[in-house]
Amino acid sequence: MSRAMQLSARRRPIPGVDAPAAGGFAVLRPVRARAAGEPDDLLFSRWLARAGLWLPLGGIALLAAVVMVWPMSASAQSKFTFSDAFDALVRWLPFLVSSGFLLNVVISITTMAIGTVLGILLGLGQISLSRAVRRVCWFLTQAFRNSPWLVLLFIVMLTFPFEIALGDTIIKIPDWMKAVFGLSLPIMANISEVVRGAVQSVPTGQWEAAESLAYSRAQTLWRIILPQCFKRMIPPWMNWYAILTMATPLCSLLGVEELITLSRQAMEAENNHPELLIPFYGFALVIFFAYCYPIARLTLRLERRYAVKL
User: Fold this and answer.
1) Is pLDDT at 33 greater than 50 in this prediction?
2) Burial state string for 147-167 with b = 16 or more CB within 10 A and e = fewer than 16
3) Which tens digit of pLDDT belongs to each residue from 286-308?
4) What is the pTM of this model?
5) What is the chain's mean pLDDT, rounded?
6) How far, in whole angstroms, is CA 14 from its chain's centroid?
C-alpha cells in the first residue's frame, strides 16, 4: 500500500467515533455503577431540597382543591365555616405537636438507631469471607429492602405480643414500640446496602497497603477502611432518615397515636365537619416539611463537602 493510501486510510472518519453513524439505530450506553453516597443515593433529599417553599403551599392548595367540593356542598346545611375550622386547629395545636408530632420524631429517631446498628452488622456480613454468612446477609438485605413497609408493619404489629411475662413481672410493649420494630427492618436492609457500597468503594490499594503492614482483616476494617467510609455514609444515612420520618404516618393505620391519628381524633371531637380537613391535614403537611427540609439541605451540603475527588 502506498503512503498516500495509508494517509487516506488514517484520515478516513470512523462512523460513530469521528463522524455520526450512518445508521439510525439507537446506541445502548454502558451502565455506570455508582458507589454509596453518590447522587443516585440521594434522590429524595435532592427532590426535597430543590422543591423550595412551594411544596407545602402547593400541597395545601392541591389538597384544598380536591377536598373543597365536599365542604362547599355541605356549607348550605351547616353554619360551620373555615374560620371556625382554623380556630379549632389553633385550640388543638399544642396537643397535636406535643403528643402527636413529637411521637413521630421519637419513632423516627428510635427506628433509625436500631436500624443503623443492625444495618452495619448486616452490611459487614455481606462482605464477610464466609460464603454462608454472605449469602444469609444478602438474602435478608434483599428480602427486607424489597418488601412494602406497610406489610412489614402489619406483620410485626399482629405477631408481636402486647406484653411479655417474665415470671411474676409483666412487661408491656406499646404499639409505637412495635411500629419501631416493623420500620427497623427496611431501614436495616437499606443501611446494609449503604455500608456494603461504601466499603467496596474504597480503593483496593488501601487493602493492599494494610496487608503489607501485616494488619488482620478486622484491624484493616476498623482502623483503615471504615474510618474512610464514615464520611461517605453520612449523606445517604441522613437521606434515609428523612424518608423514614415521612413514612411514620403509616403507623396511624395501625392505631398508633401519632400526629395523623390525633388529628383524626380531634376532627371527630369537633363533630367531623368537612371544613376541618384542610386545616388539620394542611398543618400536618407543613410541619413534616418544616422538619425534613433542613435535613435535605444539610444532606446535600455534606455530600458536596465529603465528595470523593478522583
Assistant:
1) no
2) eebeebbeebbeeeeeeeeee
3) 999 999 888 888 888 877 776 65
4) 0.73
5) 79
6) 46
Whether residue 100 is predicted with pLDDT greater than 50 in this model: the reply is yes
Q: Which grid coordinates belong to 76? A: 348550605
Distance CA 26, CA 98 (A): 57
Query: Does residue 75 surpass a pLDDT of 70?
Result: no
HEC profile of the chain:
CCHHHHHHHHHCCCECCCECCCCCCCCCCCCCCCCCCCHHHHHHHHHHHHHCCHHHHHHHHHHHHHHCHHHHHHCCCCCCCHHHHHHHHHHHHHHHHHHHHHHHHHHHHHHHHHHHHHHHHHHHHHCCCCHHHHHHHHHHHHHHHCCCHHHHHHHHHHHCCCEEEECCEEEECCHHHHHHHHHHHHHHHHHHHHHHHHHHHCCHHHHHHHHHCCCCHHHHHHHHHHHHHHHHHHHHHHHHHHHHHHHHHHHHHHCCCCHHHHHHHHHHHCCCCHHHHHHHHHHHHHHHHHHHHHHHHHHHHHHHHCCCCC
pLDDT category at 102 given cuts 50, 70, 90 is very high
